[in-house]
């Protein structure tokens, strides 16, 4: 009976995941969910006006283009093809531009569920209890349905755990294949995000320990390692070639026409232009001054704040269990097994909860070495955490707290957080592409202040169209904001021009101090800005809706 209830609950939560993606979710988690894939691909494939982040500029290539092409690129190519074939006359709009890449990621997210179901028996966890914990987590509902590189990192980590765990339970026929796949996934994860090595370390050590423990022949061991290295090198060459062609705008035709020489000369020229994005990423992020530009945090932020923010009581229970097990096994693990039986014995013979905790805390410790620590960096850790938490007699008495925590997290990050910006862009897209605007060309200036960076692609404006101007003033002060608005108002002489100012309700009063007037205002609810949070006394008054809203103000001529 309990198993049937768990299955029904998982099915309901899985339907919620897919349905909420299509609704769509209005919460805006972080600019990277747009500017590390969809925004770039919308410019390249759909020829829309976009903002290219510095990581995708040819002068500083720090992100591989392979995964954006395989995800957002494929989604946009499909809706473009449907429109070109007249299957759908208006397939490209703000809704499809937002939802199509997210839907692909939502489908991919069920790889997590598959991984949990496969891994649970191996690690001594209840499969359906683990699946309910996974599907009910707001991290799965919100983060794993967004276009983050961290989401892909989590999926690759899950596949790696399946491969290294299944090796022991499966026969020898799958062993050679798993060595090759482990090499491919490890390298692909490294090119997606170099931090993947922190997540891959324990699975790879575990895999190596199983090989050493089960193989008597040194020849077989070398065979596994060679297959891993060869597949890793092949995968790396694919990524490097793709990135080199993308970032240097090299084509084979150009190379042959300019060189008019042998294939060897072409290869030499390609080598000179070679782009290895993970190395550029590491060289940038290992510089403390560069990290400081993105914000610095105490080294314990992941342990004390981000882990709790993402996983709640499950993170706290894991820490508590970790300290208990460390106290119990410290002498046995660190002295006896290390000195006399080696590291492989440590990993294999401490199978189960202690090893799962290592899969959770080792990446956490490595990521804590960097001063820039954001919660989304930890989302891949949900897999070992739910497997650990689904062990018998664990986390049962905390059911109500787990439900309330994830409900609050889903509402906060999936609906409230910067929740007015996406609906605002939907609204402005309709205004810009209205029949009146199409029949009589008009110019639009959109000024965003105190919001996250707006993804330009959602306005669905072609690069050739010059009638839309976007000004992103980020968190500009009152004086700078008023100066810009007043300057625009003084130059407002065009009868077919429209100036819209988009600003949260919490800083609405700032605009009233500027010497301008507005003819229209639209309030989009809800919108919570943590950078400009509403004051509690104001929320308790009748003005709470304004404080939790985003204003679209049209400047009066």
UniProtKB/TrEMBL annotation:
Its EC number is 2.4.1.-. It comes from the Eukaryota. It holds the Pfam family Glyco_transf_22. GO terms for biological process: GPI anchor biosynthetic process. Keywords: Endoplasmic reticulum, Glycosyltransferase, GPI-anchor biosynthesis, Membrane, Signal, Transferase, Transmembrane, Transmembrane helix. One of its GO terms (molecular function) is alpha-1,2-mannosyltransferase activity. Pathway: Glycolipid biosynthesis; glycosylphosphatidylinositol-anchor biosynthesis. Residues 1-21 form the signal peptide. One of its GO terms (cellular component) is endoplasmic reticulum membrane. It is found in: Endoplasmic reticulum membrane. It is a multi-pass membrane protein. The chain crosses the membrane at residues 152-170, 190-212, 224-247, 303-326, 346-371, 377-393, 400-417. Belongs to the glycosyltransferase 22 family. PIGZ subfamily. This is Mannosyltransferase. It comes from Hippolais icterina. The gene is Pigz.
